[in-house]
Amino acid sequence: MGDLLREPLTWGHALIFAAAAILLMGIVLGFVTYAIYFERKVIGWMQLRVGPNRVGPFGLLQTVADVLKLLLKEDTIPRKADRVLFVLAPVLAFVPAFAVLAVIPYTQSLYFADLNVGVLYYVALSGISTLAIVLGGWASNNKYALLGGMRSAAQMISYEVPLVISIVGTVMLSGSMNLRTIVEAQSGGWFWNWHFLPQFIGFGVFMIAAVSELNRTPFDLPEAESELVAGYHVEYSGFRFAFFMLTEYVYVYAIAALTTVLFLGGWHAPAPFLAVVPGLIWFILKFACIVFFLFWLRATFPRVRVDQLMGFGWKVLLPLAIVNVFVTAGYIELFIKH
Amino acid sequence: MIRTEELLLNVGPQHPSTHGVFRIIVKLDGEVITDATPVMGYLHRGTEKLAENLNYTQIIPYTDRMDYVSAMTNNYVLCHAVETMMGLQIPERAEFLRLIVMELQRVASHLVWWGTYLLDIGAMSPFLYAFRDREIIINLFNELCGARLTYNYMRVGGVKWDAPDGWIDKVSEFIPYMESKLEEYDRLVSGNEIFLARIKGIGVYDAETAVSYGLSGANLRCTGLNWDLRKTEPYSLYDRFAFDVPVGRTGDCYDRYRIRLEEIRQSLRILRQAVEQFPEGGETMGKVPRVIRPPEGEVYVRIESPRGEIGCHIVSKGKAEPYRLKFRRPSFVNLQILPKLLIGETMTNLITILGGIDIVVGEVDC
Amino acid sequence: MKGLFKGLAVTLKSMTAKKVTISYPDEPLIMPDRFRGIQHFIPDKCIVCNQCVRVCPTDCITLTGKPNPDPEKKGKVIDTYDINFEICILCDLCTEVCPTEAIVMTGNFELSAYSRDDLFKDKEWLTANDRLVRKDNNNIGAPVKGGGK
């Protein structure tokens, strides 16, 4: 795929790209379907319930049924809503969520775009979704949606900054912004070669900021159910609502994959003797662990208050991330640079 | 020129965190509340007016529906008022049964509060944990009186049912179980830094304000005032049991949270003693005339419900129906302080404060 | 931080704990004997004393009697007996006052219906509702044998 991208674009190539994109879309949709199922099951187990078990064997078709229900639902647009923006917002939310997946490398050879500024591409595109949420909140012409949208704008901008800066340490250690090169820099056979140990501050800040970027508990303020009813998507129903949910779970996919790549050694096995297991399996395992962690958090934690969230982002995470950059720089200067 | 204006936001009557059909109209400046007007009455059923045409036994099922999270204490306050008027003697076994169900009810009620409060703050699991344990109490009540929520258990002069075989043993098994679960609750929530940051220092008022607003229950004790009617004006058999009244210091939501959890422990302590001293055999119904006609006059009795001081004022003209019946509902009285607490707070704290007051809309609107 | 991890440990442990939910509609829920479910009515026992109608706090019971068809016996027999379950609160007072236990509680509680009309239950329906009838009725409010006033 990487070589094809460098060649001049022909109709044949375009067709291949489209097919690959559709394939990825299929994989992502499959992931989202079963991530939702898995989430409901995990949270159910943690809450002494069994979770969905009625539709299909073990409830495996529950999400399918839910999506079908959303598809069949009446598409309502509030009379006082700004129609164009209201329709545009879910699309605008979803497109960058899907586009960022292009740069994620799954194994040595399985990847879509080998971009030399992969990290930057990811961060830049994911910022656009914020815009969609604000638009959705504004266009709904609902006070709760507006509050949710505004909260989300404030939150995402605040947490984008420490998120990016926490990655800088990793980028410095690997000397590249290319996600494949970053994974290669973590090779060495053992799990202590992965970046999460030398970059433990960066890893911590990244995880917290990532959960916040995902708008998930304990940072799910934009859609804080108990305060804002549903936040920015309170007026959305049917398939437009499904698109917002889809965006959210695609970002879960993206963030889990990004964390695996940046900090958990991508497709590398944790020990040399385990290297017989294919890299893709390791990638999926690490990926699943992070996804599980996100669900686990959701089952346990209460929600952070909005002012505390801002304070935490700017006063704790940002300084920590910057300290991490300096510490990494000092470390590289003293020990690695010859 | 940037124009800013206040946002008038209608919170409720259909809102996930107003615990029923309660409505607050808030004026927001950004996310800061500048004005708040509670609107109540969406669940008003006219219990007090209805009672004027019902005889005293018929009113008991209506009291179940006032504070439906704590129906046993409502039953008790009405029966206690009528018994006080008529000077009835209650058999000891009946009084013990009443006390046991009231304390179980207090535990159940605080569990509901704990679960829903955490749900308001955004944690889902505690709700399910609390309901798992409340379910045991509800099942105990179901075995005792055949209903899970609206018990209609007490009667003027005693209780409707004696405890079935093995019921008291089940209660005594429940006590150590609940104590271990309380530890689990503490591990799950009470030390959670996010939770503590949310509730510490929120909704603070001092003892003087609390008294002037007529607050009672945990809302009063969080300011440091030691006022629990079970201790200060013992009714039923509470003077026979050793228990402590937890009080707070700062008068914030955290103190209210801590007090309610501690009250569960104290209720379990009372239950343990009550189960030990539970009399063998005996009547469950005192000597009551066929038709209950309290003598002409008035009476006001008050007891400590899980939410505070619940009072019952009966004006009798010597008939089988009350001339006028008035309930002092703690949720309603405690709610009065809400607008005062809300001004200057954010939307998020609105939920924290409202949840901390612990209202049941059925009781607010009566 | 410690509190956060303690909480995480609790939820992780609960994952494998015994589940408390029951598969209710699949497995019928058996209520204890004292459960106050939909009433069962036994017309032969009814003496048309009207006690249940008078004690009902929500006035949901209506009954009519007719003269005993057997000319040798005195009194009345029940003609119609209706309970309106739109307003019945299953408070147990009607069974409590019934001197002959003609109306008793059962353990059945599934009352939901698509139409309000379905909630109006007549004598035949109540008589046919004879499953899980309560054994112990503890009629503390009923007049002692020999009749009240």
From TrEMBL, chain A:
Superkingdom of origin: Bacteria
UniProt entry keywords in alphabetical sequence: Cell membrane, Membrane, NAD, Quinone, Translocase, Transmembrane, Transmembrane helix, Ubiquinone
Record's keyword annotation contains Transcription regulation: no
Gene Ontology molecular functions: NADH dehydrogenase activity; oxidoreductase activity, acting on NAD(P)H, quinone or similar compound as acceptor; quinone binding
UniProt-listed Enzyme Commission number(s): 7.1.1.-
InterPro entries found in the cross-reference section: NADH_UbQ_OxRdtase_su1/FPO, NADH_UbQ_OxRdtase_su1_CS
Residues spanning the membrane: 12-35, 84-107, 119-140, 161-179, 191-211, 249-267, 273-297, 309-332
Keyword Transmembrane helix: yes
Residue ranges of coiled coil: none
One Gene Ontology cellular component: plasma membrane
Catalytic activity: a quinone + NADH + 5 H(+)(in) = a quinol + NAD(+) + 4 H(+)(out)
Topology of this chain in the membrane: Multi-pass membrane protein
Pfam families listed in its UniProt record: NADHdh
Protein's job: NDH-1 shuttles electrons from NADH, via FMN and iron-sulfur (Fe-S) centers, to quinones in the respiratory chain. The immediate electron acceptor for the enzyme in this species is believed to be ubiquinone. Couples the redox reaction to proton translocation (for every two electrons transferred, four hydrogen ions are translocated across the cytoplasmic membrane), and thus conserves the redox energy in a proton gradient. This subunit may bind ubiquinone.
Family: Belongs to the complex I subunit 1 family.
Quaternary organization: NDH-1 is composed of 14 different subunits. Subunits NuoA, H, J, K, L, M, N constitute the membrane sector of the complex.
HAMAP family in the record: NDH1_NuoH
Record NCBIfam families: PRK06076.1-2
Protein name: NADH-quinone oxidoreductase subunit H
Automatic annotation (TrEMBL), chain B:
Enzyme Commission code: 7.1.1.-
Major enzyme class: translocase
Gene3D superfamilies hit by this protein: Cytochrome-c3 Hydrogenase, chain B
Membrane topology summary: Peripheral membrane protein
Family indicated by similarity: Belongs to the complex I 49 kDa subunit family.
Function, as annotated: NDH-1 shuttles electrons from NADH, via FMN and iron-sulfur (Fe-S) centers, to quinones in the respiratory chain. The immediate electron acceptor for the enzyme in this species is believed to be a menaquinone. Couples the redox reaction to proton translocation (for every two electrons transferred, four hydrogen ions are translocated across the cytoplasmic membrane), and thus conserves the redox energy in a proton gradient.
Subunit details: NDH-1 is composed of 14 different subunits. Subunits NuoB, C, D, E, F, and G constitute the peripheral sector of the complex.
Protein name, entry field: NADH-quinone oxidoreductase subunit D
UniProtKB/TrEMBL annotation, chain C:
Membrane topology term: Peripheral membrane protein
One Gene Ontology biological process: aerobic respiration
One Pfam family from the record: Fer4_7
Domain 4Fe-4S ferredoxin-type intervals: 37-66, 79-108
Cofactors required: [4Fe-4S] cluster
Cellular component terms (Gene Ontology): plasma membrane
E.C. number(s) listed in UniProt: 7.1.1.-
PROSITE patterns xrefs: 4FE4S_FER_1 (PS00198), 4FE4S_FER_2 (PS51379)
Molecular-function GO term, any one: NADH dehydrogenase (quinone) (non-electrogenic) activity
InterPro entries referenced in this protein's UniProt entry, alphabetically: 4Fe4S_Fe-S-bd (IPR017896), 4Fe4S_Fe_S_CS (IPR017900), NADH_quinone_OxRdtase_chainI (IPR010226)
Binding site for [4Fe-4S] cluster 1: 46, 49, 52, 98
Catalytic activities: a quinone + NADH + 5 H(+)(in) = a quinol + NAD(+) + 4 H(+)(out)
Bound cofactor: record note: Binds 2 [4Fe-4S] clusters per subunit.
Main location: membrane
EC class of the enzyme, as a word: translocase
Keywords, comma-separated and alphabetical: 4Fe-4S, Cell membrane, Iron, Iron-sulfur, Membrane, Metal-binding, NAD, Quinone, Translocase, Ubiquinone
Subcellular location: Cell membrane
Annotated [4Fe-4S] cluster 2 binding sites: 56, 88, 91, 94
SUPFAM superfamilies cross-referenced by the UniProt entry: 4Fe-4S ferredoxins
Subunit organization: NDH-1 is composed of 14 different subunits. Subunits NuoA, H, J, K, L, M, N constitute the membrane sector of the complex.
Family classification: Belongs to the complex I 23 kDa subunit family.
Protein role: NDH-1 shuttles electrons from NADH, via FMN and iron-sulfur (Fe-S) centers, to quinones in the respiratory chain. The immediate electron acceptor for the enzyme in this species is believed to be ubiquinone. Couples the redox reaction to proton translocation (for every two electrons transferred, four hydrogen ions are translocated across the cytoplasmic membrane), and thus conserves the redox energy in a proton gradient.
Protein name: NADH-quinone oxidoreductase subunit I
